[in-house]
């Protein structure tokens, strides 16, 4: 039986943020008790939520996870097994009335099987990709630059991987897909939507330019006109046709 560390981060409309850490055995059936917080998860006062799942013993343990939009529960699922992904999805759906979007790691061999398992387990949507595994070594010290040796690698370099995985998942599931991973321009947003994303999230680019979201939104009309796009809804999944 694995031990799964769960961090639930809840942001309320009042501005209060609560961090709740739980460490419980994860049985194969993944009982709903492992995500026990039903009163919190269903509260009308909730503005956003996110869940970080870690398995002690795995190399990657301390990635950065971002909340998504109002009214969603965005679950960052750092698991590589479709059965485990389905179990977590079912458990969460059992204790909340909110839409549940499962955020998947790209550090897997078959992203489609995991996405389909989440869909079959009741997920309302899929969000991908999370950070990739990365590592740098300091030439002076000759040691890894971070204490954990490896960590989440994000930014524009992972964009092609994100587009590929969004394309694959959007083709395989019948629920909305939120695309993310290296998005930093209005052109990137268009490309993600053509791959099949119904919405696009921007993460790491905000650390480079805190106003990047505003700039991209303002630039979208220009890019849409350039490529003769009248309605963004019309291009969702356009690369599949």
Give a concise summary:
This protein is an alpha/beta fold and 241 residues long. Helix content is 29%, strand content 24%.
Topology, pairings included?
Elements: E1 2-12, E2 17-26, H1 38-41, E3 46-54, E4 73-77, H2 82-93, E5 100-104, H3 111-120, E6 125-128, E7 132-134, E8 137-138, E9 143-144, E10 151-153, H4 159-172, E11 177-179, H5 186-195, E12 199-200, H6 205-208, H7 212-226
Parallel strand pairs: 3-4, 4-5, 5-6, 6-11, 11-12
Antiparallel strand pairs: 1-2, 1-3, 7-10, 8-9
Helix pairs in contact: 2-3, 3-4, 4-5, 5-7
Strand order in space, largest sheet: 2-1-3-4-5-6-11-12
Distance between the termini: 45 Å
Oligomeric status of the shown chains? single chain
Mean of pLDDT: 76
Structural class: alpha/beta
**In percent, how helical is the residue content?**
25-40%
Biggest sheet character: 8 strands, mixed
Number of helices: 7
Q: Unreliable segments (pLDDT under 50, ≥5 consecutive)?
A: 1-34, 47-72
Beta-sheet strand percentage? 15-25%
Radius of gyration: 18 Å
Q: What is the element string, with H for helices and E for strands?
A: EEHEEHEHEEEEEHEHEHH
Principal-axes geometry comes out as globular
Could you tell me the number of beta strands? 12
């Amino acid at each position: 039986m694995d031990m799964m560390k769960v961090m639930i981060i809840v942001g309320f409309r009042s501005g209060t943020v609560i961090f709740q850490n739980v460490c419980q055995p994860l049985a194969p059936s993944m009982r709903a008790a492992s995500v026990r917080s039903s009163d919190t998860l269903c509260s009308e006062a909730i503005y956003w939520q996110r869940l970080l799942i870690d398995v002690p013993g795995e190399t990657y343990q301390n990635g950065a996870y971002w909340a998504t939009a109002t009214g969603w529960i965005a679950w960052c699922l750092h698991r590589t097994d479709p059965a485990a992904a389905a179990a977590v999805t079912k458990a969460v759906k059992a204790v909340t009335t909110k839409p549940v979007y499962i955020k998947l790691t790209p550090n897997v061999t078959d992203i489609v099987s995991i996405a389909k398992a989440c869909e079959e387990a009741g997920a309302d949507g899929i969000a991908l990709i999370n950070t990739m595994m990365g590592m740098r070594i300091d030439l002076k010290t000759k040691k890894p630059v971070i204490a954990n040796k490896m960590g989440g690698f994000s930014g524009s370099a992972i964009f092609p991987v994100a587009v590929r995985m969004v394309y694959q998942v959007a083709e395989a599931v019948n629920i909305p897909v939120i695309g993310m991973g290296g998005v930093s321009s209005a052109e990137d947003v268009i490309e993600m939507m053509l791959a099949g994303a119904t919405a696009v999230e921007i993460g790491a680019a905000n650390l480079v330019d805190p106003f990047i979201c505003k700039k991209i939104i303002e630039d979208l009309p220009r890019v849409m006109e350039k490529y003769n796009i009248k309605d963004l809804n019309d291009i969702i999944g356009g690369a599949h046709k």
